[in-house]
Amino acid sequence: MLTLILLLAAIVGLLVVMRREAGALPALAVLAVTGLASLVAASAVLGVILLAGAAVVAAAGLPTLRGKWLTPRLFAMFKKVSPKVSDTERVALEAGSVAWDGELFTGRPDWQALLDARDDGLTDEERAFIDHQCSVAAGMCNAWEIAKERADLPQELWDHLKRERYFGMIIPKAYGGLGFSAKAQSLVLQKLAINETLMVTVGVPNSLGPGELLLKYGTDEQKNHYLPRLADGREIPCFGLTGPRAGSDATSLPDTGVVCRQMVDGQEVLGVRLNFEKRWITLAPIATVVGLAFRLFDPEKLLGDEEDRGITLALIPRDTAGMEIGRRHHPIGSPFLNGPIKGKDVFVPLDTIIGGTEMIGQGWRMLVECLSIGRCITLPSGATGTARYAIGWSGGFARIRRQFNVPVAEMEGVQEPLARMTALGYIAQAAVYQTANTIDRGEKPAVPSAILKSQLTEFQRQILGDAMDIHGGKAVTLGPRNYLGIGYSANPVAITVEGANIMTRNLMIFGQGAIRCHPYVLEELAARDADDLQAFDRAFFGHAGLIFGNAARALTQGLGLGRPAVPFDGEAERYAQEVARLSAGFGLCADAAMASLGATLKLREMLSARLGDVLSNLYLTSMVLKQWHEGDKVEGEAALLHYSCQLLLGRAEQALDELFDNLPHRALAHLLRRVVMPRGRRFKRPHDDLARRIAQAVSRESALRTKLLANTWSTDDGAQPNPLAQYNALLATQERAEALYRTVNKAYAKGELPAEALHPEQRIEAALEAGLISADDATFMREREARVLELLSVDDFEYDAFVTDKSKVLRHHAA
After folding, report:
1. For the Acyl-CoA oxidase/dehydrogenase middle domain, which residue ranges apply (predicted)?
2. How far apart are the C-alpha atoms of 343 and 324, rounded to whole Å?
3. What average pLDDT score do residues 796-815 get?
4. Cβ 294 vs Cβ 255: under 8 Å
């Protein structure tokens, strides 16, 4: 018995030391004390084993001992197996900053640090702009007219955008811009997401483009000239990066610039001769100034000794000789202005280089640093805004659409997708807002930007698919009445641009995060590059302590022991603890994958993607918890919190499960599964009861529906009709209508109304005549049914309306 007690004491003591990452001395003390006690009072065999373990810990854990024999050998091995980091990768790794994403790699996330990043809200000016100017812009949009008749925004909308300085949201007031916060910029784009062409048109100039590049890197002369003109719309910018052979691998762009001298207006000018071919450039057809990325060469060494000067950025006026611009691509589902740019032997002076000659060769760093912020805002905000509108439309439609004498919102087959899309929208709102808040507090979230771009646009794909299913025939028939179909067909654009989701998920999230966010990997690589043995010793054995700590935390918390204290209320507390548990498991698995696969992990993209999925879902859960903690809760929101967190944590566990199934080192995979999930998976699909409650709330006039639809255009005061406002108006009188439906349908079922009264309108008149409802009720229902029928109706057209060449029309029944 004493032997067993001492063994348990040694195990418990080591687990405590490991969980706290207390270091070698406490572990050595635990083993030495229990080992000596075993030798004296219990089992000599156990005592020898424990003391041998103490010797190993001393040799490997005490710096003075390991530095003489172990560290040099490990350092030599690390130099051989550690991945080489190219200059391009190094720039990407060094761009941006690390915040909560880094905490999730530690296995012991500091929740208070997350909550300390308080939200200061919006200014009165920002709120007024969203409430008023954005409503005006949204009210000018007719999706059918923009997509099918104009292939552009109407002139009055362009005038409004320029006059109200939408293109200058990120430009400071000193240069004539709006100087909005990241949160305000995000909420503007969410409201404008009622039309994807409008959202893209406003979003892109405020994302990766000349404005942000000039702000951060431009010369004073460039800023003073261009920023006021960009802010008020006198200049329309575009940025040319991608091309036929340079998409995801933008650093391999074949577009070139050669430093040379050329006679201009009788004077010799030092400049650059450009040859380029760009594709998929948003706003290119109407741009007045073109940002351009190219590889600069100086064969005559006019600027110095280097011939290959690297990726460089320039700002070129539209009317520059030799540049071809103005043709259009036809993006799927949406006519936002997008097209190619070509240039052959285009000469520009050196002062067109953004930032001047000092920024030659710094183009890739400039782009990556800007993208870490812009990618957090534009497409994630568009996806979130789309979710808000889709939830509002789908909830309203499901309530007014009746089948089998009941609203389809009462059918569980509809409630399931309605609840799912609502949860994804709720998660997206929290993630994009809280990440924008970190930007406003000075962070440049590189890894979260990849998470938000890929995850939220995938959410958008799911949400729009669910919305299409709920709407059925209403959504698959295009025409002016269809508010959903054009946006649905345009969704692949968001999936593809600003880093295609396949690349982002498989290469970027974990690939960048594993080095950038890990507490020790970047230090180890830096020590290798500097050939610094002491720095390597500190980083490597700190890393080893983290591995043991995460193993102990994952195992004990997986067994339900030692749950960490978290600063959340009862509804959210459990989920924060589960995030901490899975964070420890994720950190352990990340280190195991890197250690077992080494540099080949880069090539095992499916494994990297699953690790990225774990990180993504833990990050999104954290943002939901922070939003819940800080926000004003409304009735029904707790069900949405539970559904959202269970969905995300279930996805994280699923990704770990698949990782264990596919790790090539099977013994390691089995060990990791036992440590990380000793009791199996904790989370599966959210319960049906939660789905029913959520679907009921968002398909009725409720506090939860109102909260989810905040920052949408929900009033009927625009130049174009607003289906969302129409649904809201019908839901406001839904209870009265439901009571009358029950009265009329019950009477019809009993035979109290004529059998031929098959239409609702006929039954209303028959019920009025029979004295079952009042004249006031009949008037109410007549008006209501007319509005319902209009919202349920679809469009039809002349037989040859969609034929562009009328000579090819087949007249099947010419007679």
Report:
1. 238-337
2. 6
3. 87
4. yes
Question: Looking at residue 226, what is its pLDDT?
Answer: 96
Whole-angstrom Cα distance, residue 653 to residue 298?
A: 53
Distance CA 26, CA 187 (A): 51
Domains of the chain: 1-68 (no CATH), 127-360 (2.40.110.10), 723-814 (no CATH)
Query: What SS3 state is found at 169?
Result: coil
Q: How far apart are CA 58 and CA 24, in angstroms?
A: 7
pLDDT of 100 over the 60 cut: yes
Tokens matching residue 614: 């774990």
Residue 175 tokens read as 């240069």
Region 70-82 average pLDDT:
89
- The count of residues in the chain is 815
Is the backbone of residue 664 left (phi > 0), alpha (psi -120 to 50) or beta? Answer: alpha
> What pLDDT sits at residue 414?
97
**For position 498, what pLDDT does the model report?**
84
- Alpha carbon distance 713, 710 (integer Å): 9
Q: In DSSP terms, which residues pair with 338 in a beta bridge?
A: 282
Structure tokens at 223: 């800023």
Q: In DSSP terms, which residues pair with 479 in a beta bridge?
A: none
User: What are the structure tokens assigned to 511, written together?
Assistant: 């690939």
Are 341 and 276 contacting, i.e. CB atoms less than 8 angstroms apart?
yes
The gap from C-alpha 155 to its chain's centroid, in whole angstroms, comes to 32
**pLDDT score at 492:** 94
How far does Cα 613 stand from its chain's mean position? 12
Query: 382 falls in which pLDDT band (50, 70, 90)?
Result: very high
pLDDT of res. 373? 81
**DSSP-based three-state secondary structure for 270:** strand
Q: β-strand 338-349 against 289-297: which pairing, if any?
A: unpaired
Kindly state the percentage of the chain with pLDDT values over 70.
99
- In sequence order, which residues have a C-beta less than 8 Å from that of residue 429 and are 6 or more positions away? 384, 387, 388, 627, 708
Positions marked active-site: 498
Q: Is the pLDDT of residue 602 over 90?
A: no
Alpha carbon distance 268, 274 (integer Å): 17
Q: What type of residue sits at position 573?
A: E
Residue 768 has which token pair?
């009025």
Q: How many other C-beta atoms lie within 10 A of the C-beta of residue 636?
A: 18
* DSSP three-state, residue 610: helix
Residues 6+ away with beta carbon under 8 Å from 141: 153, 157, 194, 195, 198, 720
Secondary structure (H, E, C), 736-747? HHHHHHHHHHHH
The 3-state secondary structure of 37-98 reads: HHHHHCCHHHHHHHHHHHHHHHHHHCHHHHHHHHHHHHHHHHHHHCCCCCHHHHHHHHCCEC
pTM: 0.95
Burial class of 635 by CB neighbour count within 10 A (0 to 12, 13 to 18, 19+): exposed
* 322-356: pLDDT as tens digits: 999 999 999 998 899 999 999 999 999 999 999 99
Q: Distance between CA 432 and CA 456 in Å, rounded?
A: 9
CA pair distance 100, 119, nearest whole angstrom? 15
What is the CA 477 to chain-centroid distance, rounded? 30
First vs last C-alpha separation in the chain: 103
β-strands 289-297, 237-240: how paired? parallel
Three-state secondary structure call for residue 174: helix
pLDDT mean over 736-741: 94
Among 483, 436, 425, smallest CA distance to 459 is for 425
Give 660: exposed, middle or buried? Use CB within 10 Å, 0-12, 13-18, 19+: buried
Tell me the average pLDDT of the chain: 93
Q: What is the 3-state secondary structure (H, E, C) of 633-646?
A: CCCCHHHHHHHHHH
Handedness of CA 717, 719, 721, 722 (dihedral sign): negative
R_g of the chain, CA atoms, integer Å: 31
